TrEMBL record:
Organism: Dendrothele bispora (strain CBS 962.96)
Signal peptide (residue range): 1-17
Full protein name: Tyrosinase
Listed GO MF terms: metal ion binding; oxidoreductase activity
Keyword terms, alphabetized: Metal-binding, Signal
Tyrosinase copper-binding domain segment(s): 89-106, 255-266
One Pfam family from the record: Tyrosinase
UniProt keyword NAD present: no
Entry keyword annotation includes Ribosomal protein: no
Length: 337
């Protein structure tokens, strides 16, 4: 096993100008298929523990009013991701914001549900040629993340795995859904091509020292996996909800695969960062969600302290509350499989 770069939790340090803090603990992040059955059960039961924590801190508004409905801490993450769709995707914030978001989720697992194990990532490039047989698609009721949804007799609900019985709150109460597809229905082109190790290597080689181009190209790789899994991961509208109401929503983190996917996204970014020392604090890019490379707002000289505007990202009550947490940071390291 190889240890890849050590990642401390440094974003708030940069953003708020606080002194650099030492790591409280050092945790490992490991590929899901290296988990033993017991380790899978421990991780999954701690995620389910978050789904059972109702009306915790994140469910309050800034004036202390309880938000309506039956929501859990797990749902609050989906709400947060949804509220920040435009501010945290396809732009300079995409990678650092998701690193922070994933960190907060890991923190919640450890602090709220006493999780002590490794945080998992899913290296989907290993499953390219037989994605459906990937170890992440496991029907076991205690150690499995579930298989595909049933899109014939139900609204793509997952009936197996440990999350088949969980009710999610956003955008309306529903069961976890997947609608796995390997080709883009609009173009008939394969969605898995971009997930190859070779493609990832090409991106890293071509963009060393150029964060903007890296995050732009890598965003598309990231998007493809969301399309492939479909259902909640692709923010497909539940059938009982008006389609227009889902146009601007992104409740992808409803699917527990989201966290494994973003572990992988963060791992690839950390590899890219380690390729060149100047890569570490480079966050050039657009302030807002855009695909337009010629947008005049793009400032290649911008740095994280100028562009990573967490106040703006904190427009959601949930985010502003979690961003204010003051616990000493833990650090993590990716263990290569
Ligand atoms: Cu996202």
């Amino acid at each position: 096993m190889l240890l890849s770069s050590l990642l401390g939790f440094w974003l708030p340090v940069v953003s708020f100008g606080a002194p650099v803090q030492e790591c409280r603990r050092l945790f490992e992040r490991r590929e899901w298929r290296t988990f033993s059955n017991e380790e899978k059960i421990a991780y999954i039961s701690s995620v389910k523990c978050l789904t059972a924590h109702h009306h915790e801190r994140l469910s309050y508004t800034s004036s202390g009013i309880l938000m309506p409905g039956s929501r859990s801490i797990y749902d609050d993450f989906a709400l947060t991701h949804d509220m920040l769709e435009d501010f945290a995707h396809e732009n300079a914030y995409f990678l650092p914001w998701h690193r922070y978001f994933t960190y907060l989720f890991e923190l919640a697992l450890r602090d709220r549900c006493n999780y002590e194990g490794a945080f998992p990532y899913w290296d989907w490039s290993l499953d390219l040629f037989d994605m459906k047989s990937s170890p992440v698609f496991d029907p076991d009721l205690t150690s499995g993340l579930g298989t595909n949804g049933d899109c014939i007799s139900t609204d793509c609900f997952i009936h197996d795995g440990a999350f088949g019985d969980v009710t999610l709150a956003y955008p309306i109460p529903h069961h976890l859904r997947r609608n796995i597809t390997f080709d883009d229905p609009a173009t008939n082109r394969s969605l898995t091509d971009k997930l190859s190790a070779e493609h990832l290597f090409d991106i890293m080689r071509d963009t060393t020292g150029d964060f903007f181009t890296f995050q732009h190209r890598f965003s598309h790789v990231h998007n493809n996996l969301h399309f492939i899994i479909g259902g909640d991961m692709d923010s497909e509208c539940p059938s009982k909800y008006p389609k227009e109401a889902c146009d601007l929503t992104s409740f992808a983190s409803n699917d527990p695969l989201f966290w494994l996917h973003h572990g992988q996204i963060d791992r690839i970014w950390s590899k890219w960062q380690s390729l060149h020392p100047d890569n570490f604090y480079a966050f050039q890019g657009y302030p807002l969600n855009t695909h337009n490379l010629s947008d005049s707002r793009y400032d290649p000289e911008a740095s994280v302290s100028q562009k990573l505007d967490f106040d703006r990202l904190s427009t959601s009550v949930a985010v502003s509350q979690v961003f204010n947490h003051t616990a000493p940071p833990f650090c993590y390291v990716y263990v290569e499989h």
